[in-house]
Amino acid sequence: MNRPETGDERRTPLTVSMGARRMPARQSTRQQGSLPTVEEVSAGGVIIRPASPGFEVAIIARYNRGGRLEWCLPKGHPEGTETFEEAALREVAEETGVEGAILTSLGSIEYWFTVPSHRVHKTVHHYLMEAVGGELSIENDPDHEAVDVAWVSMDALDRTLSFPNERRIVNLARAVIDESVQSS
Known about the structure:
Elements: E1 12-17, E2 28-32, E3 35-50, E4 55-63, E5 69-72, E6 75-76, H1 84-96, E7 98-115, E8 118-134, E9 148-153, H2 157-160, H3 164-183
Parallel strand pairs: 3-8
Antiparallel strand pairs: 1-7, 2-3, 3-4, 3-6, 4-5, 4-9, 7-8
């Protein structure tokens, strides 16, 4: 299997913030200590569909640089002049095969990881999305980063997702859904 070049498993969540602020989509580099730091921005989401009971979320599996399989939320870099929302919709569709419609912003997470030549400070903007079409597939992932995709019950995501910061984003999504159900 093709093993994509992703960060290692030593990711450290720094913040979870509500409200998306617009940051440059391009990478910038700054020196910190002996390794340069690269700023990266991505967008993705929690795409849901009704299931009994509750909802399911489409997540992807990929291999990290160390060869470990990681289950995570779909995400990727904005292209050209894409907004974070446009990038999130495109990336989710490419990596999962599922077309979505954005319901709301879930905020952003930041973390650091190191590759041999530099450190990466990454900000990922997340959106709650409703599945509106498509079928689960990794065939349209142009980077071939995703090696598997699955619908997983929201209740099982705490045991399935590899990263605590993404589990917190799913918990925010669950709170938004619960609030929406209670108010209707």
